[in-house]
Automatic annotation (TrEMBL):
Listed SUPFAM superfamilies: IVS-encoded protein-like
PANTHER family: FOUR HELIX BUNDLE PROTEIN
A matching Pfam family: 23S_rRNA_IVP
Name the UniProt record assigns to this protein: Four helix bundle protein
Database matches in InterPro entries: 23S_rRNA-intervening_sequence (IPR012657), 23S_rRNA_IVS_sf (IPR036583)
Length: 129
């Protein structure tokens, strides 16, 4: 895929940098454990999306994006904890962005799955001819 037109990859990179900045704020406040968890899951989203660009097959592509989706869900959880706690700072911008990433990943995964089954049907109909 051409990274110049890859919206999900671009968004995940920007999101990762913003997560890194928020984690630094958390660390400065002595919130190291949550910061580490959020850092791992939040930056893993983009890493898995990047890895999907070199997938060996459509199934591998889908699998890597599913991992990115799971990491986004975990990131959403850590951000919700921050929002709900009176002792942690919240970052509503990251919460909105992770939801957008999840929606985009979900759409890409479902489209890739539909294309996969569509190409299987085409192969079956071609082999029957």
């Amino acid at each position: 895929m051409n990274s110049e037109n890859n919206v999900v990859l671009d968004l995940s990179l920007v999101f990762s940098v913003e997560v890194m900045d928020f984690c630094e704020l958390l660390k400065k406040q002595g919130r190291n454990i949550l910061s580490d968890q959020l850092f791992r899951s939040g930056t893993s989203i983009g890493a898995n999306i990047q890895e999907s660009q070199g997938a060996e097959s459509r199934a591998d592509f889908i699998h890597k994006l599913k991992i990115a989706y799971k990491e986004a869900s975990e990131t959403e959880y850590w951000l919700k904890l921050c929002e709900m706690s009176t002792h942690y700072p919240a970052n509503m911008s990251l919460s909105v962005k992770v939801l957008s990433l999840k929606k985009l990943l979900s759409k890409i995964i479902s489209t890739a799955k539909a294309n996969k089954s569509g190409s299987s049907n085409e192969k079956n109909s071609q082999s029957n001819n």
